[in-house]
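Section 5.1 Outputs to date
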Amino acid sequence: MTPFKHLMQEAAFSARYCANKQGVSVETIYSWLQGKRNAPEDVLIWLQKEIKHQTEVARDMVRDNIPPCARTRQGVSRKYYAMVDLNAE
């Protein structure tokens, strides 16, 4: 398994999402996944940072007892915070 494929699986990103974020074609992503070409070092570093961010967000959600339905890939839904603010009154 290539380092890129391992990181992609750990991050749970689709090839399309990664291609859009990196500004490359989906075919390029597949060539990195299959080991036909090596992914650039900066892409591997980006994936590592994304995984670290996901881990921090997940830890914060568990700590703050945020329900799974309020979770998004980027963090916590704005609707959840709006709902919590309304219930605080």
